[in-house]
Amino acid sequence: MTYYSAMIETRADDNQAVSEGALGLFLTAVQPFHGAVTGGGDPQGWSARISIEARDAADAVAVAAALVTRVAADVGLPGWPVVRAEAVREDVFDEDLARAQ
Q1: 97 by DSSP, 3-state: which?
Q2: For the whole model, what pTM was predicted?
Q3: Burial grade of 96 (CB within 10 A; 0-12, 13-18, 19 or more)
């Protein structure tokens, strides 16, 4: 098993806005996974990046998508469609971040 940085992004399919309160609860809920969240924008949407242990990148995306969308629903975020999902092995992700700085 290897650690991956997985990102799940949604986009609004209606006129519903993201609640700041729900985003705060979302951030708290994903913190055990070293999570970061975003929300709002134009068009509206929300996303989360978490660290997750998985067999490979495909497994990491599947596990992260299931976890993040369930947690989002639990805290009251809209159940918008996932428009982007990615997983990058954490050592590769760290290398990419170092190059970008």
Answers
A1: helix
A2: 0.91
A3: exposed
